[in-house]
Description:
Largest sheet: 8 strands, antiparallel, barrel
CATH topology: Lipocalin
Strand order of the largest sheet: 1-2-3-5-6-7-8-9
CATH superfamily: Lipid/polyisoprenoid-binding, YceI-like
CATH class: Mainly Beta
Radius of gyration: 17 Å
Order of helices and strands: HHEEEEHEEEEE
Number of domains: 1
Number of strands: 9
Amino acid sequence: MKVFLLLFGLLVLGSGEGAAQSRYFTRTGHIWIFSETPIENIEAHNKAVSSFISFDTGEMVFSVPMKSFEFRKSLMQEHFNENYVESDKFPKGSFKGNIVNIQSVDFKKDGVYPVKVSGTLTIHGVSRPVTADGTLDVKGNRIGAKSTFTITPQEYNIEIPLLVRAHVAKIIQINVDLQYDPFIAKQ
């Protein structure tokens, strides 16, 4: 986590006028999780995701406050924070990685470009490699990013109590929808 914070800080605080237009940032990114079982569907939305991306290097970092996930039922949200992801002990999830094929995106031409992202996802204090397909939507001076991928709670040492195990899917879908704006370093 310290390495992530250091990298995030260096990327955000870094200076250089030439690089300013290739770096984009959001503090209102939207990530939502979805679990489907025959008993019930569980969905939670988080619109407080911070992310930074450099189109020069393809570097990408995320910081996800776990307590900002909002569930339809307050009891689900309480169980998520207290029993499953232990948000007091592990308050943030994070991702640090790269867009592998960043050279295939023409940032001077509007369009939707397929990308592949590879890096390390940290949840519940466990870091694991992740690779996901996604898209970058170039529209003038704004960049949209979308991706969907799956994880299992077991991969991140998240234990689901036997009593509710049938209510939570073995594979959780994670959806990412971010709108980046140009990052301008303060002088």
